[in-house]
Amino acid sequence: MIKDRGQLATKNDAKQENQTEAVAIASGGLKREAFVLAPRSTYGSRPAVIVLHGGTRGANDIFKWTSWPKLAEREKFLLVAPQGVNNQWNDGRDVTISGTRSTADDVGFLSSLIETLIRDYGADPRAIFVTGVSNGGLMSMRLGCEKPSLVGAIAAVISTMPEVIAQMCRSARPLPAMFMAGTADPLMPYDGKPNAFLLGRGNNTPMLSIPATLDLWRARNGCTVKGVAKNLPNLNKNDRSTVTRIEYRTCKSGAPVIHYRVNDGGHREPSMPPQEIRGRFAQLGPQNGDIDGPEEIWHFFTMQIDR
């Protein structure tokens, strides 16, 4: 393991930028990299949140375009942004949005990264959480299926689930899980039907719908069939979307399943305020501005710390 200071650009001040370290880990015959933001803290072991970027994107995006850095500074948790090989994750599909199939051992890489966080950064092994957007969300599900003992909870954003991963996931140990998805997502259809864009790139991987994904995790965690739904306040009247939160909290395992259904939302993580929709982002559909995705995810993670 090699550790050195990274000059990673962030939305925040130079003090925070100087706290960001580039960590290199040998995994699967490759030199892999992650960026760790470790805000100054007065206490010992602390939670770690691993945020996985989307396909064709990169770890730097987590620091440039999301509220995660500000959250980490405020709440004093370790923020970790790993880099996928060729800007993608091996999430179980035949082909990702890049048009290629990843053969990287990302489960092995993330497992080694978690060991490093515990050993070198004082991460609490009981409070290591993984979340991701799109390709990164699928990867968080795969890690939660194959290595559930390593993480305290996962949160998958605008991500459906490959059936091949679902098969191995049904018998895995219970794990708290959150899912945030738009009903009008053009890339990860809510109903799980084949996507013309990805089919054109050679991806024929059968995918579960979001309701079927919820059913899988609900059954895995021993939760009741019927969830409790609540329509959240429509704070942004111009985003063409609303949010319904569906909670499955009555679970024999004690591991809840939460779903944020973004009604008429596209392939974009909710954000307050929403990012400007322009260029290719306009093709991804509406971005909800009623909630902030990272804030809601962090709140869910904190609820699991003392569970």
The CATH homologous superfamily is named Alpha/Beta hydrolase fold, catalytic domain
Number of domains: 1
**Biggest sheet, strands in spatial order?**
1-2-3-5-4-6-7-9-13-12-11
User: Ranges with pLDDT <50 over ≥5 residues?
Assistant: 1-18
Residue fraction in strands = 15-25%
CATH topology: Rossmann fold
CATH class: Alpha Beta
Labels describing this entry:
307 residues, alpha/beta, Rossmann fold, 11-stranded mixed β-sheet, two-stranded antiparallel sheet, 9 helices, 13 strands, 27% helix, globular, disordered N terminus
Would you mind describing this structure in some detail?
The structure is a single chain. The protein has an eleven-stranded mixed β-sheet, sandwiched between helices. Strands 8-10 form a two-stranded antiparallel ribbon. It has helices at 14-17, 60-65, 68-75, 106-121, 135-146, 163-169, 196-200, 210-220, 293-305; strands at 2-5, 20-27, 30-37, 46-52, 78-82, 123-133, 153-157, 161-162, 177-182, 207-208, 228-231, 242-248, 257-263. It has a single domain (36-305), classed as Alpha/Beta hydrolase fold, catalytic domain (Rossmann fold, 3-Layer(aba) Sandwich), CATH 3.40.50. Helices cover 27% and strands 25% of the residues. It contains nine helices and 13 strands. The chain is of the alpha/beta class and 307 residues long. The model is unreliable at 1-18 (pLDDT under 50).
